[in-house]
Specification:
Length: 282
């Protein structure tokens, strides 16, 4: 069973807000190598396979710069299909003088960087699930230095030629105001399970025993306020369910715990207790 295909529940799409759409397009298209699927004066749908959009950008009319110490986007994560892809983009980012951080999480190898508006992006590749270590119901993860000497042995002659078409939205990581109600929302409401607890600071949740499809943390402070609606950052992310019956069950579960589900712009949407918007899709 794939971690980013049905019947697993996974993050299919992320929409973020930017201050300057044309500047953002140059970064995502010319540096990261996305293709443009659709574009208007204020929005753009980005693609890696030319058919589906996994990321979209919007420049609201009254947009303001990213606000600090709020709930909202910590990072969205682009999952590359091969280790060579990660090696190639390391070289590519260095050639374009793009600053980035890195980490070995045991389950994956990751790079971290920011777009021109400060939206954080993770670009990673997974190790084989057979290499992951589980202690009962929790997967072991870490924040270790990335072994660049080993990674760069996998650079290919063709180097970076844009996002591979098999790239998917691997996961999303969010700032939240507290963890107790948020855990209830994602587990009892959205049907995910906790697969790692990082002390009392963060939770990692998934479906189908992935290392995480969604993570939440209180690193911006317990009780952190919601950002302004027109602030740079997350507009929404999409969770994809296996079929309409599964989605109806999720809607019912959300309503049982007191969460509001609405239909908006032909989308069925809800919000977690910290105000992060989620589209429920099939």
């Amino acid at each position: 069973m794939g971690f980013h295909t049905k019947p697993t529940t996974f993050v299919g799409h992320v929409k973020i807000k930017v201050t300057n759409l044309q500047q953002a397009i140059k970064f995502y298209r010319d540096i990261l190598g996305f293709g443009i699927l659709e574009q208007t004066t204020s929005t753009v749908e980005l693609t890696t396979d030319g058919k589906t959009s996994i990321l979209s950008l919007e420049q609201p009319e009254d947009v303001i710069a990213k606000e600090g110490r709020t709930t909202g986007l910590y990072h969205f994560a682009l999952l590359l299909p091969e280790k060579s892809n990660l090696a190639n983009i390391v070289v590519h980012l260095m050639e374009h003088h793009i600053r980035f951080g890195s980490s070995d999480h045991l389950v994956s190898e990751a790079l971290y960087l920011h777009d021109p508006d400060g939206n954080q992006i993770e670009i990673y590749r997974d190790r084989a699930p057979s290499e992951w270590t589980w202690q009962k119901e929790e997967v072991t993860m870490a924040v270790n230095p990335l072994n660049f000497e080993n990674l760069l042995k996998h650079v290919t002659i063709s180097k970076w030629n844009g996002m591979p078409e098999q790239t998917v939205m691997g996961h999303i990581h969010l700032h939240v105001a507290e963890l107790k109600e948020v855990e209830e929302f994602y587990v009892k409401g959205l049907g995910l399970e906790v697969v790692n607890r990082y002390g009392g600071q963060a939770l990692f949740l998934s479906d189908g025993k992935y290392h995480h499809h969604v993570a939440v943390n209180v690193w911006n402070g317990v009780g952190a306020p919601k950002p302004a609606k027109n602030s740079v950052g997350l507009e929404f992310f999409t969770l994809v369910y296996s079929n309409e019956e599964a989605r109806k069950e999720i809607i019912s579960n959300l309503q049982k715990i007191g969460s509001v589900v609405v239909e908006e712009n032909n989308r069925i949407m809800t919000q977690d207790p910290s105000g992060n918007s989620i589209v429920l899709a099939v």
